[in-house]
Amino acid sequence: MKKIFFFLIISICFSAQKTEFINLNQSIKDRTSLTKSLTLIDNRADKNIGKIDDKGELVTLRFEDENLKSHVESWFLKDNKKTGNTDIVVVLEELKVYNEQDSDKEYPYAKTKIKVSSFLKRNNNYYFIYRFENVIVCNPKRVPHAPKYLAEQISEIITDFIKASYTNTVTSYSIPENEIHNYSKYLSKNYNALNNSELKEGVYTDFKSFYKQEPNANYSLKKNKNGKVVKLIHKDVQTSLSEMYCYVEEGKGYKLTPVGFDEMKKDFIFTLQEQIFLKNPKREVFL
Description:
Elements lengths: L1 H15 L1 E5 L12 E8 L8 E4 L2 E7 L4 H12 L6 E15 L8 E14 L2 E14 L7 H22 L7 E2 L7 H4 L4 H4 L6 E3 L2 H5 L7 E5 L5 E6 L2 E3 L6 E4 L2 E6 L2 E4 L2 H4 L18
């Protein structure tokens, strides 16, 4: 009888656990028809995505199909019947969800940390294309269900990232196949932002222009009386701050984050962050 009772308790505990699935089912069709194959390398040290609170109950986030490599590669083939001659490799380096109490907030926020990079593969060499690395912040008080919201964000980020990788140009020298896990040292050879002692002042609209140190003269900034940047001006017309990758002032770079502009330290610059989600009007950072 005791054994039956024990197994009943275990069964209740398992049934009470909630799971929010991340569905990768949107279209990732390559409109250019140039891509022949898409390969996924899952380099996450920990394959468990994590749990976050949903109104006092912990919810586990998982991919609908946890054989992620097979799923992503089949997903590509399903949406791309006509093949070109380009092989793209996507490396998922980090994906975690968690609740974190920030010092200036009255309660924990739900967050997703994600890092994913893409490469063109040719003749056993890799060429860096693109990277998304960021923390998506969700205010549980303003979002009905944080797990569902973050699962949707992860799905959209991965979808948008893959589609962006089709059309972005290669931005590095060749990386030998056996050095793909150590690719960052090869990237540092290419960028003026890492090698110059001083950064050029101005507004940069994307990470490539920043790393080439080519500010966009058509953009300028306006500050409030406290000296904080509050407006981005494009040819005398106010536009969204999301159009700006970063700006440089007095030799220092500043990047828009969920809590305002932060100075870009050297190690931060080296991450090559590209905030895809800020360019998608459907996606927001909830503060």
